[in-house]
Amino acid sequence: MTHTIELAQGWRDYTLIDSGNGEKLERWGNVTVIRPDPQAIWPRSKDVDWHADMLYHRSKSGGGHWEMLRGGIPAAWEIGYDNLRFHIRPTGFKHMGLFPEQAVNWRWMQDKIRSAMNAKPSVKVLNLFAYTGGASVACLRAGAQVTHIDAAKGMNQWARDNAALSGLGNAPFRVLTDDVMKFVAREIRRGNRYDAIVMDPPVFGRGPNNEMWKLEEKLFELVTNCYRLLSDNPLFMLINAYTAGYSPAVYGNVFSAVIPPARGEITTGEVGLQAQSGPILPCGMYARVQFA
Description:
Helices cover 24% and strands 33% of the residues. With 292 residues, the protein is an alpha/beta fold.
């Protein structure tokens, strides 16, 4: 069987140990974790001991809770990737505050930014639905000026903390708690422009003032408006996606409907993690536009 998935390479502080039976066994620094993963429908590896420090139990009514299987587990800790540092802590919705598979996109964006800065005095990046700022910090490290937008004030503070932890506390990093659609519309009116735009849109969400976001209703409008925000010589646009029910081609088709074919090259694909034992775990999708 041949299927291309870009794998996150270069992790030392994170390891996918095994996956199967609807769960994954991971090491985050010195803490071993079992979390649900609906894609892991194959059996677990027979030669792997699924012993963990923490186990997430999903509730049938939504959400879930963590069970600590040993004492002394910190409330939060740090891990590193390349020359980036991140705060890790378990959240009520099984997430750990970082998506390790996104290292694929971090490297891709950093390569584009660093290449462009050989000819441009600066690169302005807009990160939408920016969560705890993994992509923001990666772009800052590459030398970009980053505007980071998320509706959750707590996530934005986490992003600031990650930047400071990575030694980028004085970097040109603008962090705003705002509704993405409203912010983009205001930026168009203000005449602000960006060289690159990355977004990680959820299926459903609410802005800081209870603004409604539904992916199927809003994504095309958002991409259309983001295209209007691009500078005269842009680098890229990138959609990260974790949406069940859509393929990468769906996001590529949205780009194709907005961006003239001669303007940029569109590619789509998946990102994943190679387990120490067992198969590759697919973890998400992307659609990219690299501008000519």
